[in-house]
Amino acid sequence: MSEIKQFQKELDDLEAKKGKYVWDELEELITDAFEEEKISSEEFDLLMKRLMDIDCE
To answer: Which superkingdom heads the taxonomic lineage of this protein's source (predicted)?
Structure first.
């Protein structure tokens, strides 16, 4: 599974409150993947926008 698809699945799980990661962990993982050039800047922006739309309670 590609990095972007894996992150999209994790974001789905976070929204459903059944994810294995909390909001902060996903933010760090997405940022790390971008810095390691595993995802493009467009993919990073898309993932971060979606993450920001999820309530972090």
So the answer is: Bacteria
